[in-house]
């Protein structure tokens, strides 16, 4: 009797647990709990700022050995950065020292206070060792006098720092225990919703809404990188130029510029031009849910949890807030792999047509397309599926994309000179790395995109895909990512590639998890592992997710352009060529002129508008050689001889001969990482 009663109780408990209303109640409870944990507290009065902590070393004051301290700024790794500069004079030659303040114990062997570690960063500092040591010790001593035992550097405000927006204050609370509990609650909620009878549609809509909110708020932040403006300018060209002229000179296929051209009908602001990438990024999660449903018939709890990863990934959110084709390409990769995995199950006319179209669009969107296509075919071979099922649609798509592949070959040839420059100057943006070293960086980028838990789970699903007979669901997307990782690593030897390119393919690993084989491991166990993987996502040492909604410290060009627009100087010199593009954009905006490529003279000088304002870049970074610094100085002096000139110099690109000349000019404004100076026609 007791055993029979126990069985009955278990059946009733199971029936309650399987009730859709109970699952909805539990999901809503989880979401409410996560919201309460994230909701920011009432703003407390600021008791101490970084300016207070370094007192009496106020910004502009001498730290030691004639070095003047700059205002503090936020660093990339939850740290705070000070810059100390010295012009050549009685105290010695000119120099620059970059000082970082981090959590105590984070960097071993550095000077420490009660709460912090203080150290200089060698690659970004140019000063004698005795100056480095003296300035670092002076800053450490100043902080130590005011350090009463405080929190993380990221928790201490800057005096001039505005109140962060609500979304930033919410995400800033993802620290400590909350960084584990909140993602787990979200994953549980999505899993419960995904298990409902119409859960796939509910989850897809919910994740699209969440992904859109995370990506579109505060899109009007100033541009930091010149490639954003370059894409904007190219997208503003006439459609014929995009498809047959100047648009083909870019390092990327022209489809994204067509998208930007369409977006440009709504204006040329930062928010408008970032919007297409933000929308494409928000569609990644619904695409994963759709792909899992297409292959299995239902995405379910595991598909919902896997899709959640790409919705909340700080790295993928940041990539979706750029004027970049990466989110669109990631969306196409997910669709392509899902269609191929569907064809692995059996014939489908719609899937064949879709695969042909998606393959062609891959080729016209990003130059990683050949690697993705090869990875899909590798996944088919690993799953022991007949290649003829996908060979025809992929072949048709590749034929339609053949012109884009020709452009890829031309780009590699054009990049040859840039690769030689990178070998001579490895500190340049695209660097110079052997395939083994580049592969390590690529793996780090994948970890940033999806987290270590999802990587381990993806490896597990792939291994089980080998064990389960004729299971291609996880093997096809895993093959696409693996081949792309290896390809990017080896391409670094002959093409200008960077590790972050892999962010365009990394989301497909979430699809591999969503398609985990359930023959050997039950779905509920995969789902539990998925919750664990998501819960560990935000505990890695990386820039906090709230940083995507705050102005970048390098976004100084709008201020520089506003000052330049109000002055009489007609010529503006930028030491590095990439600043010329940014400056041209913001000068056009300040004049209410259309944002488009300026007229360019043979010398590479931009000419803006009827007023004849000119922008002269001194150095094309990808064409540098050992004499570039001296040649840049001569070009600068020739510009001075023609009349008063404004000059923009960045700390990350200091040429000693040029810097010595600019030391005699008037500083108009000094940002944390750059400065604008005015030089008279008599400067020598």
TrEMBL record:
Coiled coil location = none
Q: What is the lineage of its organism?
A: Bacteria, Pseudomonadati, Myxococcota, Polyangia, Polyangiales
- Membrane-crossing residues? 21-39, 170-194, 201-218, 271-292, 299-317, 323-341, 353-382, 394-413, 446-468, 474-493, 500-517, 523-540
Q: What is this protein called?
A: Glycosyltransferase RgtA/B/C/D-like domain-containing protein
Keywords in alphabetical order, please: Membrane, Transmembrane, Transmembrane helix
Q: Could you tell me which species this protein originates from?
A: Polyangium jinanense
Q: Which superkingdom? A: Bacteria
Secretion signal: which residues?
Answer: none
């Amino acid at each position: 009797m007791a055993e029979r009663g126990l069985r009955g109780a278990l059946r009733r408990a199971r029936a309650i647990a399987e009730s859709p209303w109970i699952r909805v109640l539990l999901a809503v409870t989880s979401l409410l709990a996560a919201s309460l944990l994230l909701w920011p507290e009432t703003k407390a009065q600021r008791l101490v700022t970084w300016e207070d902590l370094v007192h009496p070393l106020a910004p502009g004051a001498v730290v030691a050995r004639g070095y003047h301290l700059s205002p503090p700024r936020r660093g990339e790794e939850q740290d705070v950065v000070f810059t100390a500069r010295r012009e050549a004079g009685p105290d010695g030659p000119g120099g620059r020292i970059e000082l970082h303040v981090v959590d105590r114990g984070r960097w071993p062997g550095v000077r420490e206070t009660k709460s912090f570690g203080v150290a200089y960063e060698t690659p970004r500092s140019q000063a004698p060792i005795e100056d480095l040591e003296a300035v670092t010790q002076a800053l450490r001593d100043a902080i130590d006098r005011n350090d009463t035992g405080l929190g993380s550097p990221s928790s201490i405000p800057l005096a001039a720092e505005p109140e962060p927006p609500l979304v930033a204050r919410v995400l800033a609370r993802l620290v400590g225990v909350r960084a584990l509990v909140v993602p787990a609650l979200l994953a549980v909620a999505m899993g419960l919703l995904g298990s409902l009878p119409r859960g796939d549609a509910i989850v897809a809509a919910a994740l699209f809404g969440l992904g859109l909110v995370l990506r579109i708020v505060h899109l009007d932040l100033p541009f930091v990188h010149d490639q954003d403006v370059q894409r904007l300018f190219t997208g503003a060209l006439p459609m014929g130029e995009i498809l047959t002229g100047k648009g083909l000179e870019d390092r990327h296929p022209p489809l994204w510029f067509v998208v930007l051209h369409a977006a440009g009908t709504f204006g040329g602001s930062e928010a408008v031009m970032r919007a297409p990438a933000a929308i494409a990024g928000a569609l990644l999660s619904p695409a994963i849910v759709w792909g899992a449903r297409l292959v299995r018939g239902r995405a379910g709890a595991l598909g919902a949890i896997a899709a959640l990863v790409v919705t909340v990934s700080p790295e993928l959110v940041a990539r979706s807030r750029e004027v970049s084709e990466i989110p669109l390409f990631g969306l196409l990769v997910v669709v392509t792999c899902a269609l191929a995995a569907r064809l692995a199950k059996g014939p489908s006319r719609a899937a064949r047509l879709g695969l042909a179209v998606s393959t062609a669009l891959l080729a016209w969107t990003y130059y990683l397309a050949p690697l993705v296509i090869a990875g899909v075919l590798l996944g088919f071979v690993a799953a022991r599926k007949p290649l003829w099922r996908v060979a025809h649609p992929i072949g048709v798509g590749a034929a339609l994309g053949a012109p884009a592949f020709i452009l890829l070959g031309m780009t590699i040839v054009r990049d040859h000179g840039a690769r030689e420059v990178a070998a001579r100057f490895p500190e340049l943006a695209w660097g110079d790395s052997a395939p083994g070293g580049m592969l390590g960086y690529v793996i780090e980028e994948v970890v940033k995109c999806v987290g270590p838990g999802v990587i381990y789970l993806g490896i597990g699903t792939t291994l089980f895909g080998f064990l389960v007979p004729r299971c291609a669901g996880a093997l096809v997307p895993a093959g696409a990512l693996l081949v792309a990782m290896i390809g990017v690593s080896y391409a670094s030897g002959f093409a200008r590639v960077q590790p972050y390119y892999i962010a365009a393919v990394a989301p497909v690993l979430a699809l591999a998890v969503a398609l985990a084989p359930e023959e050997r491991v039950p779905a509920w166990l995969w789902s539990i592992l998925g919750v664990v993987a998501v819960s560990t996502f935000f505990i890695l040492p990386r820039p906090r997710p709230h940083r995507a909604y705050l102005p970048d410290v390098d976004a100084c060009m709008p201020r520089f352009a506003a000052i330049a627009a109000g002055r009489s100087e007609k010529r503006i010199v930028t030491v590095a060529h990439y600043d010329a593009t940014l400056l041209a954009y913001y000068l056009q905006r300040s004049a209410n002129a259309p944002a488009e490529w300026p007229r360019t003279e043979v010398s590479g000088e931009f000419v803006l508008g009827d007023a004849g304002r000119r922008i002269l870049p001194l150095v094309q970074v990808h064409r540098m050689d050992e004499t570039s610094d001296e040649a840049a100085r001569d070009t600068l002096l020739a510009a001075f001889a023609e009349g008063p000139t404004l000059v923009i110099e960045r700390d990350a690109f200091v040429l000693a001969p040029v810097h010595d000349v600019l030391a005699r000019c008037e500083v108009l404004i000094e940002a944390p990482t750059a400065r604008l100076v005015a030089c008279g026609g008599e400067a020598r």
